[in-house]
Structures are given as structure tokens and as C-alpha cells.
Amino acid sequence: MRLYVLVMVGAVSGAFVAAGCAGETVSGDEMGDSSGGDGGTASESGGSEAGTLGNPGGGEAGGTSSLSGGAAGAVGDPGGELLIELDGREFILQSAEGYTPLEGITVRIWFGDGELGFAAGCNSHSGAYTICGTQLCVESMASTLMGCDAARHAQDDFFAEFFTSQPYVTLVGDELTAVVGDVTLVLLDREAADPDRPLTGRTWDVAEFMDGQSVSAYALPAQPTIRFAEDGSMQIFTSCNTGEGTFTTNEQTLVLSNVAYTEQACSDDNTVIVDAHIQAVLANGVVSYSIEAARLTLTRGEMGLAARTE
User: Fold this and answer.
1) Do 221 and 158 have their domain in common?
2) Would the pTM of this model clear 0.90, i.e. be above it?
């Protein structure tokens, strides 16, 4: 079992200068490296002492940036209005100027209940924020402490320092722009960039199996799938047996009926476990479900399934 520890995130080492919320110039502290050892260490970063980001990628280890001090000329909405408009929303990075993100990693940021959070490929980060005029002001950020490769740690460091460097922000419809020095990030509301998929008319590949607080994945000879048809029928493949039934939806619940499975003997231990788990969750009765982007979660009591689709 992997242990996640909450720590305070340290900014990238190096001196930097930026405009504060009131427009004053301040100098930043020199920070430690969070990528060493088994997960590394981290320290508190102060949002009021924010500014120029160096190259956190360390050459070939991660992305590169050309963030430097100076005016970042974006002008946003009044602070109170923008604070309300950001609350409860999640954004996905679409493009970056002055920094090269790692390929194949989706960078997400979210706002809720006065906190900003982000995930950039390794750890999850969060911290209290407010809007200072036209700037996003984050005093410090906390982080889980997972061991990742140097490139992912470097990208985490970049975004941690970026968001504690009081970026100028604008929100126009679903597009959020954040600017510090020569670095500009353009993000799009998650529901516009990666909308929730409909439940029906598609195949869902089951990949995770929840039981209480544990989440498991298994190597299987064939991919378990679920398909909900628009006519209310349901087809299931457990990687061992096939099943079918009918369903109706009621807000965030499914009512399953007439569910029946074949009784083929499964070939290995993993398939036996997965077959039993799927049949326990997808049996006659009520199942809770939620869809976020391309992910479907189905739960019955302490047991659940997570599946993905195109």
C-alpha cells in the first residue's frame, strides 16, 4: 500500500522578482529540491514572496521555461466577481507560451471553497487563494508526497512556483489565461475541454475495482466491459462470463433488473476475483453512478467499479 503524506510545497531554487498584489517589488526565498530520495521533501512557499521562475526541468529532466520578472499585462475582472466565477470550476491546460510542458500529461487546476488545486503529473497540490485586483494570490501550497521521476517532479515544481507567483488572470467564458513574466498559460473549462460522456450507446472498459477504501487493478486475459444501450438493455463481460439485464436511470442511480450471467469456470485467480466483483456490483437492485469526462464510477455499498470510454 502506498502512503501519501501531506507536506508543504517548496518553490524552485533560485532568486526571483515579481509584482506583488499591491504592485510592490519583492524578492523570493531560495527553496529546496523536492524530487530527491523516496519522494523527496518539501517546504512552505510564501505567495507574497513570488516572482521569476527559473528552469525547473534541469535540462533534459523536464519542461523548460523562460519566465522572467517584469510586467505581465493581462487585466482581469474585478476580484470579487472573478472569485465567484472561478469557484467550483476545473480547467485543463491547453497551451503554454514560455514553458514546455511534458508530453502526454494532462495538467488540471481546480477552484473550490477558497482553495486552488492542481495536478501536473506527479503529486496533487492545493492552497488557499484570493483575487488581489487582477492577480491570483496564493500564500502557500500543500502537496501529497509521491515518488516520481525527475521530470515529473520538475513539472510539479514549475506549476507550484507559477501559482504562488501571483499570476495575472483573465476569464473570458470558458477560457482562463494566467500570466507571469514571459510565461502565459491558457486553460479551458474541463466541461468544455473534456465533456462528460453519455452513459448509453458506448462501451465502458472496467479498469479499477473498489472495496471500501482500497482500489485494485488486475492483469486479465481479456478486458471487462459494460455497455448500456439506449433501449434500456445492458450487456456485461467480466473477462470470464457474460451477463445481460435491463436498467432504468433516476438522477444518479441505476435500477438494474433481470440480470443474469453465464456460469463458465474462470481460468485464473485474477479472473475469478474480477468476475465475482463485477457480478456483486452489477446485480439486481440499485447502483449509484457518476460520470466525469470519460470516467464512469458505479458503486453498491462498499464495492464499486471504475470504467473508461472514448
Assistant:
1) no
2) no
